[in-house]
Amino acid sequence: MNIHEYQGKQLFAEHGILVQRGIHVTTTEGAGQAWDELGVGLVAVKSQIHAGGRGKGVVVDPQSRDTVLQGGVHIARSRNETVDFAKAMLGNMLVTKQSGARGKLVQNLYIESGCDIAHEYYLALLVDREAKSVLIMASTEGGMEIEEVAASTPEKIHKIWVDPATGLLGFQARNMAVDLGLSKIAGRSFAKMLFSLYNLFVNKDCSMVEINPLVRTNDNQMVALDAKIGFDDNADFRHQDIFSGLRDISEEEPTEVRAKEADLSYVKLDGEIGCLVNGAGLAMATMDVIKLYGGEPANFLDVGGGADEEQVETAFSIILEDPNVKGVLVNIFGGIMRCDIIARGVIAATESLELEVPLVVRLSGTNFEEGRKILKASTLNIHSVDSLAEGAQKIVALIGGEQ
Questions:
Q1: Disulfide engineering: 264 pairs with which of 163, 167, 259, 393, CB 3.0-4.6 Å?
Q2: Is 237 exposed, middle or buried (0-12, 13-18, 19+ CB in 10 A)?
């Protein structure tokens, strides 16, 4: 789960991490009031969406798709400018490299006090599963996308791996401060922030914390001008204050929200072939084979090992909510799950949803023969196949008009 920058800044402040004073608003009137309340001569008007690259994005009208404003983050030097930027952003779509072509609707703004910036840095904490450690990355090239830095000047990215058994050690924080060329005073400020960020990362079960830019002020204090935080969904039972209190469902794909409520793993993609599979690895393999035979998967959908007929029907309805879907491939390996149950669920879903797109089903494993008999006995237009390769070829051919 991700949260907005303004929410991340609140968590930062609670953990002793330096941030600028800011106010969350949802209206143009609120933006004007925020200017008055902050009482400074310069503010940053920041759109709040769950996507990176806001500053380099484009604000567009949701109907006409005409450009309204270049950039989703702007500096305002007056009350009128603050209100004007807010008016241009709120209710429109912000398109960034990470938002997708349609963009995301701007419903929240963060009005933040200006900052005395001497230099910008990049800082992130991530889970390195291969190393079984927390990876801390930093760079002197703040304000840039880290992918660009990695491609053009990889030597400017500095990394340390923190063993969870020992935690972040003092020499690691000091060495990173030296790698970034920080002075003694700035280095102390950086090390203090790094320890606070590490504690936040571990205590709140974060999957990622990114600050871009992290800035050094002219008095050598390190201030977080950004806050991008992701949390491990598996830890939601430990952090209901975060998962219930900070989650913004409007930022999430509606079908993904519905799938999660039905205990299904679903991710919407841009293709034309809907996929219903049990097991994450098999789902990934299914998408790969679809692409191998010239198709494009429309989703990742794992119904898990214990799905019943009702969940299968729900899975179908979620897949078919995507208007781009022109065909569906069901690929089930019956281990814990029985293929006859899947077959009945497929038939029930096909009948209740009045399925009009081609449907190809591959069943293997527990009770697969019974499952195939159930499919064959139905009068519905269901194509049963023996292998994944045959299934992928068949669905690609069917959506291409072949019989």
A1: 259
A2: exposed
Beta bridge partners of 76: 43
Kindly tell me the burial class for residue 3, based on how many C-beta atoms sit within 10 Å of its own C-beta (0-12, 13-18, 19 or more): buried
Side-chain half-sphere exposure of 387, counting CA atoms within 13 A: 4
Integer Cα distance of 114 and 21 in angstroms: 9
State mean pLDDT over 44-49.
97
Model confidence at 361: pLDDT above 80: yes
CA-CA distance, 280 to 261, in Å (whole number)? 18
Residue 307 has pLDDT above 70, yes or no: no
pLDDT recorded at residue 235? 92
Compute the half-sphere exposure of residue 265: CA atoms within 13 Å on the CB side of its CA: 16
Nearest alpha carbon to residue 228 among 125, 377, 307, 148 = 125
Residue type at position 362: R
Kindly state the percentage of the chain with pLDDT values over 70: 98
Residue found under tokens 């001497």: 118
pLDDT at residue 15 greater than cutoff 90:
yes
**Active site members:** 122, 210
Distance CA 9, CA 14 (A): 9
Q: Per-residue pLDDT for 264 more than 70?
A: yes
CB-hemisphere CA count at 13 Å for 36?
8
Mean of the pLDDT values across residues 251-257? 81
* Identity at 70, one-letter amino acid code: Q
Is 146 within 8 Å of 153 (Cβ atoms)?
no
